[in-house]
Design brief:
26% helix, 261 residues, 3-stranded mixed sheet, 18% strand, globular, alpha/beta, transferase, 7 helices, L-arginine/glycine Amidinotransferase, Chain A
Amino acid sequence: MCPPKHFTVEYAINPWMDTTVAVDTALALQQWEELRTTLTGLGHVVHVLDPEPGLPDMVYSANGAFSVDGTVYGARFLHPQRAAEAVAHQAFYLAEGWKFVAPAQVNEGEGDFAYLPQAHGGLVLAGHGYRTDPAAHAEAQEVLGRPVISLQLIDPAFYHLDTALAALDDQNVTYYPGAFSPGSQRVLERLFPDAVIADRDDAEAFGLNLVSDGRHVILNTEATAMGRKVREAGYLPVHVDLSELKRGGGSVKCAVAELRP
């Protein structure tokens, strides 16, 4: 995780960003700390990446890389405003001794990649349509040695995979069908017949931008209906208020890069 010390909305690179509305940085820091404390309180270890001036979106640390079994596939951002974030993430992983592979293709880390180690022998789900180049899916497959399933996003409001789909445990997902092309919807139906299906209201509340440890599902307070759905599916919803981070187009998942050693 990376604290939002320098978080502002200075530019608009997704439909949620409004440069005319000021961000309350103190509130953003308070909400971020609540998320960090929630995760540590559930028994998780949180590594903190130092924020850098001039990179207001570093708080969305999920976008900086994607790791599977000790190998890290680095990010290469589409928009120049975020390009330097990839360097900071690479430095973190190298300092921690991970096997790091720098990408040749544009991709935005866990923003567009999700891993389910027990689904069909281990699958990577990968989004494209707005940020990540489809060529990065093939590159990730070569780097990680896991089959990669390409899913096309068709609604600009859900510009990253992690705004439209989330892993609930090692083999099942929740997703909003309307964010995906008809063909991708059919693929998801085939792969995950027991998925928790979200609606547009859930997705617009960033209810799919969640983090789950297989039992606890941490999601934003606005996503009350989504909380009920995951509870009915057998998980324990834990709500955290991240209203300020939503101003930049992100919520719980965007703020958390999951490390898979």
